[in-house]
Write a structure and sequence with these properties.
Elements lengths: L3 E9 L5 E10 L4 E5 L6 H9 L6 E6 L2 E2 L10 E4 L11 H11 L4 H15 L14 H13 L5 E5 L7 H18 L2 E6 L2 H7 L2 E6 L2 E6 L1 H6 L4 H6 L6 E8 L2 E4 L8 E4 L6 H6 L4 E6 L12 E13 L4 E7 L2 E7 L10 E7 L4 E4 L5 E2 L4
Parallel strand pairs: 3-8, 3-9, 6-7, 7-8
Antiparallel strand pairs: 1-2, 1-4, 4-5, 9-10, 11-12, 11-14, 12-13, 14-19, 15-16, 15-18, 16-17, 19-20
Bound molecules: adenosine-5'-triphosphate.
């Protein structure tokens, strides 16, 4: 029995806009689920339907196997953390944390105990007397998270909680939220457009686009076994490289303008003979991740020659932006192997790291792995 179950959930706003289509998901107790996708894909709408802040146009939402479509937000036992923090500016950190419990009529002693315990988890003990305006963005965000966890509800819903923080604070809060989840074991649904947050925090990621779920899976599954070009391009930084080509005999002739051949990929070690036969003359897309290439030749590789356009030394690696005929790609290499700009470079894609996609449907084609 799943703890939360979303069955064929749809959202059609009063203006007729269909924001979420047939959303199906079962969430186990204690899971950390991340909804990720570009702006406008329906992440917040789905989260708000779970919270009860937005009504469900079609479909069923169950909590503990009980239909919850019409339950009020209060009765759903959920706590929500917003991007805007939503703190009371005139109340101290202590009172902000205590607010929900005071409303519920919880005993003063119990409130005090819980406020101190929560402040300890979040490193806020020294700030309990301060007003929110005297806190940094990261500290305010901690108070917002604290207000959710102090209620000890079953489900935390977080909508882009880190987006107002600078890059460094985001990394710190990311690991703090993961740590809090480990301690509280509360079922968490976390919305972000940042694939790194999704990859580092989630037990399972739900990738969305245009109101539709694209794929649900662990970070590992999504990274190594994306079902389509959208997921392959969304998960991973820099994103997967894509190059169009035509299947000709046992090869994929990669060509952006249809005239000059940019690269030739031997398909025999990658695709079954049956599929190669079936795909003769068809357009397919080659995909490879910037980090899966090698500059040294090894067995079972596809060699590709390119021109180095630009290099970016990042410290632990260098991003190398290259032109392969009319195609562009980015390669991640060891900083000690950074090539000179405006030179020719040969690199190798191990066959096991080659992805192929259908040109029309953009769905992945099963390769020999
Ligand atoms: P973001 O990351 O920008 O917050 P999101 O994935 O959370 O995006 P939603 O806020 O869920 O996206 O919005 C999904 C779609 O629904 C968007 O196209 C948005 O414009 C539309 N939408 C949101 N609220 C309403 C509304 N009240 N009426 C009509 N359309 C809406």
């Amino acid at each position: 029995m799943a703890y939360l179950k979303l069955k064929d959930i749809n959202k059609i706003y009063p203006n007729g806009f269909h924001a979420v289509h047939d959303f199906n998901l079962e969430i186990e107790k204690g899971e950390f689920i991340v909804f990720v996708g570009p702006s406008g894909c329906g992440k917040s709408t789905t989260l708000r339907m779970i919270a009860g802040l937005e009504n469900i146009s079609k479909g069923e939402f169950y909590i503990n196997d009980q239909l919850a479509n019409d339950k009020s937000p209060r009765d759903r036992e959920v706590a929500m953390v917003f991007q805007s923090y939503a703190l009371y500016p005139h109340l101290s950190v202590y009172d902000n944390l205590a607010f929900g419990l005071t409303l519920q009529g919880v005993d003063e002693d119990v409130i005090e105990e819980r406020v101190y315990a929560t402040a300890k988890i979040l490193g806020l003990t020294d700030y309990l007397d301060r007003k929110p305006r005297a806190l940094s963005g990261g500290q305010r965000q901690r108070v917002a998270v604290g207000r959710a966890i102090i209620r000890k509800v079953g489900v935390f819903l977080m909508d882009e909680p880190l987006s107002n923080l600078d890059a460094k604070q985001r990394v710190t809060m990311r690991s703090e939220i993961t740590q809090i989840h480990r301690e509280t074991k509360a079922t968490t649904i976390y919305v972000t457009h940042d694939q790194t947050e999704a990859m580092t925090m989630a037990d399972r990621i739900v990738v969305m686009k245009d109101g539709y779920i694209q794929q649900v899976g662990s970070p590992y599954e999504l990274y190594f076994n994306p079902v389509n070009m959208f997921v392959a391009g969304f998960i991973g930084e820099p994103p997967m490289n894509f190059m169009r080509g035509i299947v000709d005999g046992n090869t994929l002739k990669v060509s952006e303008n249809g005239m000059d051949i940019d690269a030739v990929v031997d398909l025999a070690p990658v695709l079954s003979a049956q599929l190669i036969e079936q795909y003769q003359g068809k357009k397919k897309v080659l995909g490879f991740r910037p980090e899966s290439i090698s500059l040294a030749e090894q067995d079972g590789c596809t060699p590709i020659t390119c021109d180095v356009e630009l290099t970016e030394l990042l410290g632990d690696n260098t991003n190398v932006y290259v032109n392969i005929g009319n195609s562009k790609a980015v390669l991640k290499v060891d900083p000690h192997d950074t090539p000179e700009m405006d030179t020719e470079l040969k690199f190798f894609i191990p066959n096991k790291h080659i992805y192929l996609f259908d040109y029309q449907t953009e769905k992945v084609i099963p390769t020999k792995k």
